[in-house]
Amino acid sequence: MQIKKLTREIRNKSLKKVKKRSPEELSTSWYQEDLLYQGRGPTLFMILPTGGCSWALSESGGCTMCSYINDSHVENVPARDIIPLFHEIMDKHTLEEPTAVKIFTSGSFLNPDEMPVEARREILQTLGEIENVAEVVVESRPEYVNREIIKECCSYLPDKIFEISMGLESASDHTREYKINKGFSKKDFEQAVEIIKDLKSEYKVRSKAYILVKPILTSEKQGIQEAIDSAIYAEKAGIDRISFCPATIHKGTLIEELWRKGSYQPPWIWSTIKIINQVREKVNIPAIMDTSGFGSRRGPYNCKKCNSKLKQMIIDSNLDQIPVKELECDCKNQWQVESSFCDIGRSTTRIRY
Ligand code: SF4
Ligand SMILES: [Zn+2]
Hints:
By secondary structure, the protein is of the alpha/beta class. The chain is built from 13 helices and 8 strands. It has an 8-stranded mixed beta sheet with strand order 1-2-3-4-5-6-7-8. Helix 4 (79-92) runs parallel beside helix 5 (117-128) and helix 9 packs parallel to helix 11. The model has no long low-confidence stretch (mean pLDDT 95). One of its GO terms (cellular component) is cytoplasm.
């Protein structure tokens, strides 16, 4: 109960400070090479404006590490505003080869209160008619993964992969509830995965799990182990792909408050490498380590000498699904000590070089 109250207070405070942006200002798109189901390939990323994640706007205050709500319109955005912005993005890009289209809405694409049904239909129908769209990827909390809705979405994309990414974050219900304030259980997650698995005989529907690396109140050592265990669990549950999200300090979150007070530090980059290398050995589905924020003051960090090099090595390892090669650096010893012996949830006194 306490974590909800705290998160709600911090969220309210932060929402008051955020400068409200129009749907046009929030909508954006970019191209990047990424891992498709068929291997390396182009991906069109787009952010479509909505009213924002219902969970973050609820009494719960949302998840302890997430500030997506600050990138939302906060008030509902009607279909008549979303549809032209989507078409504007699609008109800007010519898809010359099989491409994945990733739609981010700073919340749940499948929640009709966030993404109006009319807009959802128009978006999927349009993508279904473009030959070089190979995959459509959306994000959703598991409670909106409903059999009828998924069937309808897939019916617009007959020959394309439709992937639903869900923020499992951790295989531990305790971590998800008390450290992340996620608001759903493993059982809820498994039900959603079952629905997707069940529809695979009829459609090219797939699922992805996001796993948070090092939630609050977690030591470096625990963070590594929990991320690996969560990937093993996700594969067993029937997930098709995994994406690790190493914690980064976003504004207006509980994680930021703890970081400011010296009670939290994002993971070492060495830890993310240990996780991805072990997962590549132990798990048979594709796994990505997201490198956003690596090497920055608020993100995963080693030292100035090795941050960028390791970041690039992880990106390559993601695209080819191969282990990250061994590299030596003076900072590695400190990480080894911290990640081997410290079992307390702080890792905060580290001086960053
Ligand atoms: S992580 Fe997802 S569910 Fe949690 S607050 Fe952010 S958008 Fe909402
Ligand atoms: Zn280093």
